[in-house]
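call fold target=Monooxygenase
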Amino acid sequence: MNNRLCEMFGIEAPIFAFSHCRDVVVEVSRAGGLGVLGMARAHPDRVEEDLRWIDAHVGGRPYGVDILMPARYEDVAEVDIDALPAGHVAFVRQLLDDAGIPRLSPEQADRAARELLAGFHMTPRGSLRMLEVCLRHPIKLIVNALGSPPRELVERAHALGIKVGALAGRTEHALRHAAVGCDLVVAVGTEAAGHTGDITSMVLWPRIVDAVAPLPVLGGGGVGRGRQVAAALALGCEGVWCGSIWLKTVQSELVPEIRAKLLAAGPADAVLTRTVTGKPCRTLRNAFTDAWDQPGAPRTLPAPLQNMLWWAHGRTRVERAKAEAFLTYPVGQLVGDMNAESSVRQVVQDMLLELAETKLRLDAMLG
C-alpha cells in the first residue's frame, strides 16, 4: 500500500490490533499488521513474561504496547480497599447474595481482592512501572489510552526510535496529543469497546483527520471487516484500530463461558456505562450493569474506585461460580456481527479481501 503508516512501521497493511492477549498480538503482526498489547490488567512480572514471549515468536515483526496513563486519577496505591463506601459494598454483596452466588470466606475474599488489585494499573504510578518494563524490549509503538502522554515520555520514546500515539474521542483531545509530539492519533468512535466517548466514528474520524493534519490518524470504533476499513480510509484515516473483532478468534484470552455469551450477543448488548470503572466504558451487558440503572441504586463511584469495588467485592465470587448472568467483558457494538469463531489470520485476510472488493466496486461505480 502507498500508506504512511505502513512505511512508518514497515508493515504490509495498516491494521493495528489492540489485545490483552499476546497470541493475538503476535498473529496480527505476523499477518502483516501491527499488534498492540494492552497492559491494564497485568503485573509488571507478567508483562515481562509476555513481552519476552512475543519477542521470541513475532519473527522480528513490529509490535506495540497500550498503557493507561490518565491525567487525573486517584492513586490506587493510596486507597485502602477496606475504606470503600460501606453502602456501595453492601449493594454489591446483596446483589450477588440475591442471585444465589456463594460468598467467599473472609480470608478468601481478602486474598482474592488484594491479588486482583496488585495487577491494577490505571494510575500514573502503575503505568510508569509498566513502561520501564516495556522499554527493555524492541517495541515500536506506545499508545496512551487515557489522555495525552507526558511530553517527557514522548521525548524519551523518540530518543529510542519508538513512535507514540494516543486515543481521542473528541477533537480537543486529538489537538492536545499533537501538541505534546505524538506521531499518530487514534480517533475512537463511541461504537468502540472499553473507555470511549459519545461521538460516532462516521462523524469523529474526518473531524479529527482535519484537525491534526498532516498527522496520520487511525480510525477506531466499529471496525471489524474490509468495508469498514475502506470507510476509514475514505474518511481520511491512514489505517484502523481494532479491538473487539479479535475476541471471536481462537487465539483470544476469553474463557469459554464469556466467549459463548459474546458470540450470542446482539449489538444492543454492548452498553456504555460507568458501572465498570467509573468512566464511560462500553462492555457486554450483564446483571451487574443492569442493577445500577434500577431505582434506589447508589451513584457509581469515580474512577478507579468503582473498578476497585467490583474487583474487590464481586468479580471473584462471580468467576468462581461461573455465574453467566454476571459475566462481562469490554466489547464494542461490533459484537452483534461476531457470531462465529475464526482465527486471527483469517480475520486479517477477510478484511483485506473485502477491502480490495470494495475498491473494485467503487472504481466501477465512480468511473
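return ok
The first strand starts at residue 15 and ends at 19. The chain is about 45% helix and 15% strand.
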